[in-house]
Specification:
Layout (H helix, E strand, L loop, with lengths): L17 E2 L9 H7 L11 H13 L4 E2 L8 H7 L6 H11 L5 E3 H6 L3 H16 L6 H13 L4 H13 L15 H4 L2 H9 L6 H8 L7 H23 L8 E3 H7 L7 H5 L28 H13 L6 H17 L37 E2 L5 H12 L3 H14 L14 H13 L3 E2 L6 H6 L2 H12 L6 H6 L6 H31 L1
Parallel strand pairs: 5-6
Antiparallel strand pairs: 1-2, 3-4
The chain binds leucine (LEU).
The site of leucine has 10 residues, from helix 23.
Amino acid sequence: MSVSVGGPARVRRATRCVTAQPPPRAPPAELLAVTGYIRGIPRPRTAAGCFLEAWGSATRRQPAVAWSLSGPGYRRDAMFQQQLPVEAQIESLFIDSCLPSNCVDAVTNTMGYHPKYLESYRTTQNFILRGDGPLPLDYRHYIAIMAAARHQCSYLIDMQKQEFLLQGGNQMWLRGLNHIPQKLHDLYEINKILAHRPWLLNKSHIEKLTKGQDSWSLAEVVHALVLLVHFHALASFVFGSGINDEQKYYECDDAREVLHLAPPPRSTKAQQPVQKLENKGYKEEIPIALSPTEPEVGVDMLMERMKTLSERSEEVSAEEYRKRFEHVESQSAELPLGQRTPPIKPDISHFIEDPKFTYVDFAHRGVQVPTFRVQDCSWEDHGFSLLNGLYNDVGILLDDKFKTTASLTYNTMGGRRDVDTTVFRRAIWNYCQCMYGIRHDDYDYGEVNQLVERSLKAFIKTACCFPERLTKRDCDKVMKEFLHSEKIHVNLMILEARMQAELMYALRALMHYTT
Ligand SMILES: CC(C)C[C@H](N)C(=O)O
């Protein structure tokens, strides 16, 4: 497992970076209409507002300030995890990600705790949304909206709606699924299945899309599949990290305070309210049942267990491995998640069909669907090359992202240094995939039960399967001894493990279709 960047912790003073940007094209009229932007309202804090500002500032040739680091505890966490020397790396990633109005979006900001990951994530996301690919740009953003809506992720829906319009998307489509072309609508079935019960996807779903009038090319299908799984899993991250309940953008001024730089003049700040995401109280009404009935296993105990597990040399039969997997799988099905899914907000309901189609425990799947054995169809041996062949080099990008996530470590845990966290991280990853019926034959699922306690299991299961039920408070309630950046780290693992699980089912269906 690789180790993070070491070296002495050194605080770099964040600097103003000037980015040379070509003036963007004039804002489309629909965008002005949709955002309700009225000339004279000071600095609207939406992506659309940012765009309008960018347009204004670029045409006035004003430089854009392009750095931001924020989030309480950032410095403490980064220092502890010995990352401050990579502050320059974060800074340059933020420069790339920065909206021209001095803001970075909350996802980028949160992922900034883990710059290595952020880099890989951004490369992939840029490529699938804006790079070479068979699907038109407006389709890509609309597919992202459809995917995010399966989990009622207002944060992602809003961002993608704005990007959709910026790409010249038809405003009518934003009225809902009844207003989109049949071709796009045809994708909805796959969207639904992949989001909640990916094991049900088979070659007939691909066949349906690729046959008949106005059908999809195989390359288009693959592009769409990648977008769908990316945004389903991103919704898990957004809810798991509490982003859906937070502000959408971070301004450099806020970041400035975190870095203890000179405060901005008061008057400027007063004119620049950061738009908070509206919380209409849906979440607050719903009782949260993640609180553990038993006390959390502390970090010291966890470390002891990790040590014992890495040292043991027990001979376990293949049959016993299988039984242990099934045990964890059926235990997962018994986990009481407590909360209800929140009522669907009226402003997103038109992007959702069949809302009752949700996750069912793989152990209770009814029809006999066999467990997905990674050895029979693995990402490394099968998925990666199939994907690469059908959609440019996206397999390489995803592979890099999976590997970066799986190997991400600072050898720390809840304030302790020099800890080998390999077994813990693997347990999280495999537990996520276990809920989708994916079994790694050479893994002892007994380790999951030793290392992932009940409350964390409930959190992971909710984040994977019902992310819309999570609130920021849920994230605060579990992993209490972990640093904030470590909780984000866990959420990154959930994102990637879930995405890989969905992708494996999608690729298996494609493989059956093409052979
Ligand atoms: C999720 C965390 C406990 C990971 C840990 N901080 C590490 O460096 O590996």
